[in-house]
Amino acid sequence: MEEKRISMRGKNVLGLADFSAEEIRLVLDTAREMKNIIHRDIKKVPTLRGKSIVTLFYEPSTRTRTSFELAGKYLGADVVNITAGSSSIVKGESLRDTLYTIEAMGVDAIVMRHKAEGAAEYASRVVSPVILNAGDGAHAHPSQALLNLFTIEEHKGRLEGLKVAILGDVLHSRVARSDIQGMRKMGLEVHIAGPKTLLPRYLYQEPGVIVHERIEDAIKDADVIEVLRIQLERMKGGLFPTTREYARIFGLNDARLAMAKDDVLVLHPGPMNKGWEISPFVAYGDNSAIQEEVQNGVAIRMALYTLVLTGGKQA
Ligand code: NCD
Q1: pTM of the predicted model, to two decimals?
Q2: For 228, left (φ over 0), alpha (ψ -120 to 50), or beta?
Q3: How many domains does the chain have?
Q4: Which of 26, 104, 2, 39 is nearest to 306 (CA)?
Q5: Same domain, yes or no, for 277 and 146?
Q6: For the chain, does the N or the C end have fewer beta carbons within 10 angstroms?
Q7: Same domain for 213 and 252?
Q8: Are residues 134 and 157 in the same domain?
Q9: Type and span of the H or E element at 142
């Protein structure tokens, strides 16, 4: 039978809920090719020559914004960055008018981070450039979930059947939400643990997700542990004990790491609160792939641009 080639050309990357397993596979395979470019002496290919990309960030970011920018530049696109604090957003310009302004300049793609859930989807309805969601409130962060899958597959050689433990502040984590969708689609077994106040209700209805009372039960025999950042800036109070108590009951330290498989892979989307949700020894230890995640983030974003802006053909 002839292989049916899927195309993602023109697809908005809003969340993994509207990605099929085949599309996720295509992104991961494309990212593998892209990673070679990052290791070259001259990191520049013409795949996106003549394309322009704007990153529009209403929330702070170090790695996501920089990697979306570098990914575009390595592929030959022109990339312009807009951050809320240094644009007409401080003069009160609305999201819709900001999007219209960017569209009017002939931009091909907008990478967007916003505190409101659904902001990227809204953008995809009001303007024509392709929208890539770089995080909308606690809703979705698809490129982060894809780079997690990529990093896991690179280390384990497979995805299907692996046991993943996701720990901590799931309530405020768009990363966890996208992870769960992507991991389920790719056949991983997802275990969750954290303070009850920080576990959203949707988890208990989510098929294929196992919620544990004790962090040790989620970690036991895990192939992968992802630690989430405690997102104090999104907490309205009352949800959280003290950081010392959190570290004692829920923090990933050496003793807890030993309960997982010997070759367990430790992930964290960053930025880390070291000493709270993760000990420095674990963060920088042999099992940690936290720095690799950052590099893989560039490869994943190169793959996404290539697929949505060119359909995958190399220029
Ligand atoms: C995450 C985010 O912004 O959602 N960080 C990231 O993109 N690398 C997670 C977080 O802020 O804790």
Answers
A1: 0.96
A2: beta
A3: 2
A4: 26
A5: yes
A6: N
A7: yes
A8: no
A9: helix 142-156
C-beta of 229 in contact with ligand 1 (< 6 A)? yes
User: What CATH number is given to the structural domain containing 66?
Assistant: 3.40.50.1370
Domain range for 158 is 142-293
Q: Which of 300, 286, 228 is nearest to 257 (CA)?
A: 286
Q: Is 133 in the pocket of ligand 1 (CB under 6 A)?
A: no
In a domain, 9, yes or no: no
> Tens digits of per-residue pLDDT, 158-181?
999 999 999 999 999 999 999 999
SS3 state at 297: helix
Q: Directed axis angle between helix 174-185 and helix 142-156, to 10°?
A: 50
Are 239 and 103 within one domain? no
The residue whose two tokens read 């916003």 is 114
Pocket test for ligand 1, best of 16, 59, 64 (most atoms within 8 A of CB): 64
Digit-coded pLDDT (tens) for 26-72? 999 999 999 999 999 999 999 999 999 999 999 999 999 999 999 99
CA of 259 to the centre of ligand 1 (A): 26
Are 261 and 223 a contacting pair, CB within 8 Å?
yes
Contact yes or no for 205/243 (Cβ under 8 A): no
Catalytic site positions: 63-64, 91, 113, 141
Q: Is residue 73 part of a domain?
A: yes
